[in-house]
Amino acid sequence: MVSTPAGESVDGGGIRAVSRAWRVLRAFTPERMSLTLADLVRETGLPRTTVLRLVDTLAAENLLESGADGRIRVGTSLIAFAAFADAAWTVPPASLARMQALAAETGETVSLYVRDGVRRVVVGQAPSPNTLRHAVQPGDELPMSVGSAAYVLLSLEPAAELDGLVARIVAESGGDPEAIGAGVAAARERGWSLTHGQREAGNSGLAVPVPSPGGRPPARTTVLALGGPTVRFTEDRIQGFVHAVRRCAEDIARTGLPPALY
């Protein structure tokens, strides 16, 4: 993480401008590949004059472009950046194959998570073979206030920093600090976490930490999680799930995580 120079507020002009520019870029999605200026104002919540200035600046760097129809689209400079990001965050083939084998064995979706500030991000996934399944995609950002993966990620944080981190999470996403603390304590004691219906009714999750392999450890703690309908997370299957997910986590620690994590 890049630190802020002493005496410089995180709300300083330069940092605020970067944050706002990022909000403009994030307004574009595969479902919204072109937007009007009014769309961007609505999606970002920024003043029209600010959005117009940011669009002009981003267009000058070919990060955005304005068409003759008045609509704004992502620019060509993002092509190389997207290719680099994909290479940096792609799960190595051997590890992805192992995750796919776990999905086939358990019938549930397998996801790899890291913490990014007060959110957790999906960095890899092997979907369940079942039609009724847990639906997340690589790149999805989820709250750290609920869920088995969140509790395991928090259980790996230094105890002295946990209260402050939980306070920031609650300020960002809501949640009950006591419930979060109880979930983290249980995950730390057992070495895994199981939750039912916390983020979405009828959905369950089970998560374990990915151990650090010999040699160079990853730059961030990583969690492997199983997700699916609660009706399939029956008591008689839980211990089998725990053993299967732990074996997979140990295997992918050896076969490798996305390059950006090293």
TrEMBL record:
Residues 77-258 form the IclR-ED domain. SMART domains: HTH_ICLR. Residues 196-217 are annotated as: Disordered. GO terms for biological process: negative regulation of DNA-templated transcription. GO terms for molecular function: DNA binding; DNA-binding transcription factor activity. Coiled coil: none annotated. The keyword Cell membrane does not apply. Residues 15-76 form the HTH iclR-type domain. Keywords: DNA-binding, Transcription, Transcription regulation. Pfam families: HTH_IclR, IclR_C. PANTHER family: HELIX-TURN-HELIX TRANSCRIPTIONAL REGULATOR, ICLR FAMILY, TRANSCRIPTIONAL REGULATORY PROTEIN. This is IclR family transcriptional regulator. The lineage of its organism: Bacteria, Bacillati, Actinomycetota, Actinomycetes, Kitasatosporales.
